[in-house]
Amino acid sequence: MQYKTQGVVLFTSRYSDTFSIAHVFTRDFGRMAYLLPKSRGKKSKIKASLFFPLSVLNMEVEHLPLREIQRLKEVEREFPLYEICTDEVKISISFFLSEFLSKMLRETHESKPLFDYLKQSVHILEKAHRGLGNFHLAFMFGLTRFLGISPNLDNYRSGAYFDLLNGIFVQQIPSHPHYLNQAQSTYLRVFCRIDYSNMHLFRMSRAERNVLIDYLLAYYRLHMYNFPPLKSLEVLRELF
């Protein structure tokens, strides 16, 4: 059957001499794989150039529940990505987020609130000119709410430890090794308030930003199954 849906491009991979596979998180079906023709001819209905990482697409697709690779019928961009496709900083952020999401979003189950958050995030990244060095941090903090792993950061008291495994502040050192010490926990408490509206107000050195993203990645690894290292992370470490 044919359906109309929207999707956020995660990445594309090689399939054959004539086709690639586009991995897309859709609003109606969750993560899907689509057969993407490599043809660059003028008569081609589906342009491979539309599938830049984080592109938001309006899609008409053929969807069969038991088929691993679905087929595309028509595709167009929901809105153009002028800066994400040309600005070196935004390109680096988009490649990091697309790799991060490709590891996080492995299920095919639909989640409209999650899709809407991704779409909103891409739109904000395209338009933003302040606080770009903190965008990926704000994105990762926000994403926890939609993955069902949001930590409880409201019960902080002076001298607390943040328990990474249980996602809460505690007054005693946990019996496992997955926690932040008191100084690290205080640091986390300050920066956990970051979001898209205030990310430009958080002044951090490169070392501080790298420490914070290490906290976040450690938290994700404890709460998401088989989360591997990210190759694109080193680019962001050098950039910001």
Supply the number of helical segments.
6
Largest sheet properties = 5 strands, mixed, barrel
Can you tell me the number of structural domains? 2
Strand order of the largest sheet: 1-2-3-5-4
Report the CATH topology name of the largest domain. de novo design (two linked rop proteins)
Question: What is the fourth-level CATH superfamily of the largest domain?
Answer: Recombination protein O, C-terminal domain
CATH class of the largest domain: Mainly Alpha
Backbone structural class: alpha+beta
Number of strands: 8
C-alpha end-to-end distance: 46 Å
Low confidence ranges: none
Series of secondary-structure elements, N-terminal to C-terminal = EEEEEHHHEEEHHH
Average residue-wise pLDDT: 92
Q: Radius of gyration from the CA trace? A: 19 Å
Q: Would you mind describing this structure in some detail?
A:
- The protein has 240 residues and is of the alpha+beta class.
- The protein has two domains: 2-77, Nucleic acid-binding proteins (OB fold (Dihydrolipoamide Acetyltransferase, E2P)); 88-239, Recombination protein O, C-terminal domain (de novo design (two linked rop proteins), Up-down Bundle).
- It contains six helices and eight strands; from the N terminus they run βββββαααβββααα.
- Strands 1-2-3-5-4 form a five-stranded mixed barrel. A three-stranded antiparallel sheet has the order 7-6-8.
- The relative contact order is 0.12.
- The model has no long low-confidence stretch (mean pLDDT 92).
A few lines on this structure:
The protein is of the alpha+beta class and 240 residues long. The protein has 6 helices and 8 strands. The chain folds into 2 domains: 2-77, OB fold (Dihydrolipoamide Acetyltransferase, E2P) (Beta Barrel), CATH 2.40.50.140; 88-239, de novo design (two linked rop proteins) (Up-down Bundle).
